[in-house]
Amino acid sequence: MNYLTIQEQHLIRQIKAETTKKNIDNISRTNAYLSYFKQNPDIIWTFLAHMVSRNGGWNMCDLEGPVFSQLIPPQTRKQLFLTYERANWLIFHDVFPQLLVYQYSTKLQEPLFHLLPYFHVSSFIQVEWIRYWKEKDQNRLTTSLIVNEQNVIQTPVIEHPNFKKRVFRTWLFNFQDWLHFSCVLFPTCGGEVYGACANGFRKLSNRIDLGKRLANILVHPRLFPHFLEFADKTAHTGSRYDYEQYFKKKSGRKTPMLRTSFPLIEHNRHTYEDWSLNRLISPLWLHGPVRHKQSIHLTDWYFEKSYQLDLLLSFQQILDFHKRQ
């Protein structure tokens, strides 16, 4: 690392402080991504991150909703929440300094990517930001950020012994995977839902493929304005009511809001590992085609899954009733 000027040292401190301030919980991160996108609309990934982060919030709040709170024991729900929260926090902790370095570069009209090593980001993504500055290939940068962030969480979350044992190897997680509950949804103010699902969420390549499919849906010329309208118009609370309020078939708020349901979690990161030095980068990650295996229009699917969950709860209640007799 090279000698830094006083201004550069100040900038690094400022970026770290701003990242910490906005990395408090799912709500603050989700809002930060959207705010950044509005200031830097060329960085499409940040709008994708906003919409995916909304889903993270809904997944957390679902754990305290009427179905999962009765189907899943409290300790398991807590572990699932901590898994979502840790992955959310790690991604933001890694990517937001990158985004701010780019923003300052555009303001000063000179590249500041030599500062990226001070934030412990991968050498892979450092090269990609320099490439983007020169070539302005938005699709390449979006894909590179997807590849980077999924690799960032692979070792500390997906392969972490604690999460592996208590979350990813449980019947519940496999059941969710099998039923396609692990889908990312993009709602509209017209009451329609679009998105894509992931099977085999533990597998890195599957998550990267999902990210690429979601990015492809998000930037669809006909759909993009509707997604942006929803994001602009709808405050993110974490409750599914955020988008169920737009459905033609009205229902009340079933899942709680995030900040009334979960405590703030204090995270730390003591060790940093450059994943790109130890992992082969598959050409398919960056250059593989985007193929949608199912319809991207998921409104009917959404109602069907909601019905399946209600049915599951009814079965559980019948079983509990017979046990008590």
Describe the structure using short key phrases.
325 residues, mainly alpha
What does this structure look like?
By secondary structure, this protein is mainly alpha-helical. The protein has one domain. Helices cover 64% and strands 3% of the residues. It has helices at residues 6-22, 26-39, 44-62, 68-71, 74-108, 123-135, 138-158, 161-168, 171-178, 204-218, 224-233, 241-244, 258-261, 275-278, 283-287, 299-324, and strands spanning 183-187, 193-197. Strands 1-2 form a two-stranded antiparallel sheet. The longest helix is centred in the N-terminal third of the chain and has 35 residues, at 74-108. The radius of gyration is 20 Å and the shape is globular. It starts with 5 loop residues before the first helix and ends with a helix.
Number of helices: 16
Query: Which structural class best describes the helix and strand composition?
Result: mainly alpha
**What helical percentage do the residues reach?**
55-70%
Major sheet, described briefly?
Answer: 2 strands, antiparallel
Which overall shape is indicated by the principal axes computed on the Cα atoms? globular
CA radius of gyration: 20 Å
**Count of folded domains:** 1
Low-confidence stretches: none
Q: What integer is the average pLDDT?
A: 90
